[in-house]
Automatic annotation (TrEMBL):
High-level lineage: unclassified sequences, metagenomes, ecological metagenomes
Record GO biological process: negative regulation of DNA-templated transcription initiation
Protein name per the record: Transcriptional regulator MraZ
InterPro entries assigned to the protein according to its UniProt record, in alphabetical order: MraZ (IPR003444), MraZ_C (IPR035644), MraZ_dom (IPR020603), MraZ_N (IPR035642), MraZ_sf (IPR038619), SpoVT-AbrB_dom (IPR007159), SpoVT-AbrB_sf (IPR037914)
Matching PANTHER family: TRANSCRIPTIONAL REGULATOR MRAZ
Positions of the SpoVT-AbrB domain: 7-49, 78-123
Molecular function GO labels: DNA-binding transcription factor activity; transcription cis-regulatory region binding
Length: 140
């Protein structure tokens, strides 16, 4: 299965819409799912991957590895959406608030192999610095 790779800086429009990169749109198809991501992000899943993730979350909750509240937040905040003709997706106010995104503000869109992650520039910079530092400290 083709992976989501790379990073793109975008801007939310006044209506809270985000234009996804063309390479991502082709892989997502005509519909996708948005939900809360870790560390103040929004995660975008293909339909197939969302179903897998939802099943995984249910299993984790059944084993007591995550709380029912986390499972509820994951499912209650999930949105099935269809990108418009220009490849834009709507980020509702609750998702924007979770990710600390402002309309007309910059947004980072990055591939995370099996999903797309949307976050603020500040969160992206912090995460990349920490990840690159970890790579520098790890000997092969």
């Amino acid at each position: 299965m083709q992976k989501f790779l790379g990073v793109f800086e975008r801007q939310l429009d006044i209506k809270g819409r985000l234009a996804l990169p063309a390479t991502y749109r082709a892989r997502l198809g005509t519909s996708c799912y948005l939900t809360l991501g870790t560390d103040n992000s929004i995660e975008v899943f293909t339909t197939e991957k969302f179903e897998e993730e939802a099943d995984r979350m249910q299993e984790l909750q059944a084993r007591g590895e995550i709380s029912m509240d986390r499972l509820r937040a994951f499912s209650a905040r999930a949105l099935a959406i269809e990108p418009d003709a220009q490849g834009r997706i709507y980020l509702d106010e609750r998702l924007r608030k979770h990710a600390r995104l402002e309309v007309r503000g910059p947004v980072m869109v990055m591939g995370r192999l099996d999903r797309i992650e949307i976050c603020s520039v500040e969160r992206y910079d912090r995460s990349m610095a920490a990840g690159e530092q970890e790579y520098s400290e790890t000997s092969s």
